[in-house]
């Protein structure tokens, strides 16, 4: 039996309308009743995750910003990492050949230079929104991560530029097909989960994790039971071909999988 369960949000627990389904909430509460510790491991900000966890009374740890922050069940900061100021300065002050929009995150929230209402749709149910700001005026020592949002092919070309320019001074990954992130070196969900597991006295072999994007790769490959969503990025499935693939987030596949795992642990699982 697992002692710690980690869940990505977008494309995993959340349905396409960015809400948690009733069956998903019910099965998460069943895990808590079995004394399995929960953590939500997401690229989302703690300012939007904390109200969700409190509203559902799930008493979960939070790994946010793709591993740049860990918060306790009481909301205390357990771990934090930010981009090196030289990296933040270079990314924000350089000219990149891309049409993607640029977004900066720190403990105060989400900042961007232009109004893009469509990006708020993913946050419509919690009210979290960006603040308009001249990004070049944000102090380089106050940047947790930088995101580029746009067309996937354009972002793939941008990734080549960033990798060459930053020369292994930051980690660069896709958190979704339309979102490329520049993260502090060594910051990812897997590394953060290891920190949390050490704090809890839980080995990674006693953990399970669910995800759908390349920012979940380290976490899924590290735990004793890693599970990939059917709607996951093709790159993730190719990177971890030995892991099971379940159904789609639009059918609350995590709930389906966990219900079987809880009720019929000795029988083979078949996606719905």
Structure overview:
This protein has 272 residues and is an alpha/beta fold. The protein folds into two domains: 4-80 and 187-264, HAD superfamily/HAD-like (Rossmann fold); 85-184, Hypothetical Protein, Haloacid Dehalogenase-like Hydrolase, Chain: A, domain 2, CATH 3.30.1240.10. It is built from nine helices and 13 strands. A seven-stranded mixed sheet has the order 5-4-3-2-1-12-13, sandwiched between helices. A six-stranded mixed sheet has the order 8-7-6-9-11-10, covered by helices on one side. β12, α7 and β13 form a beta-alpha-beta unit. The radius of gyration is 18 Å and the shape is globular.
Q: In short, what is this structure?
A:
By secondary structure, the protein is an alpha/beta fold.
Show the helix and strand layout:
Layout: E1 4-7, H1 9-13, H2 22-33, E2 37-41, H3 46-56, E3 61-64, E4 69-71, E5 77-80, H4 85-93, E6 101-106, E7 109-112, E8 131-132, E9 145-149, H5 152-166, E10 170-176, E11 179-184, H6 189-200, E12 207-211, H7 217-222, E13 225-228, H8 234-239, H9 253-263
Parallel strand pairs: 1-2, 1-12, 2-3, 7-8, 12-13
Antiparallel strand pairs: 3-4, 4-5, 6-7, 6-9, 9-11, 10-11
Helix pairs in contact: 2-9
Largest sheet: 7 strands, mixed
Total strands: the figure is: 13
Distance between the termini: 23 Å
Beta strand %: 15-25%
CATH class of the largest domain: Alpha Beta
Total helices: the number is 9
| CATH fold name of the largest domain | Rossmann fold
**What is the helical fraction, as a range of percent?**
25-40%
CATH architecture of the largest domain: 3-Layer(aba) Sandwich
Counting structural domains, the number is 2
Summed over residues and divided by their number, the pLDDT gives a mean of: 96
Which sequence of strands runs across the widest sheet? 5-4-3-2-1-12-13
| Whole-angstrom Rg | 18 Å
Order of helices and strands: EHHEHEEEHEEEEHEEHEHEHH
What are the low-pLDDT stretches, counting only 5+ consecutive residues below 50? Answer: none
Structural class: alpha/beta
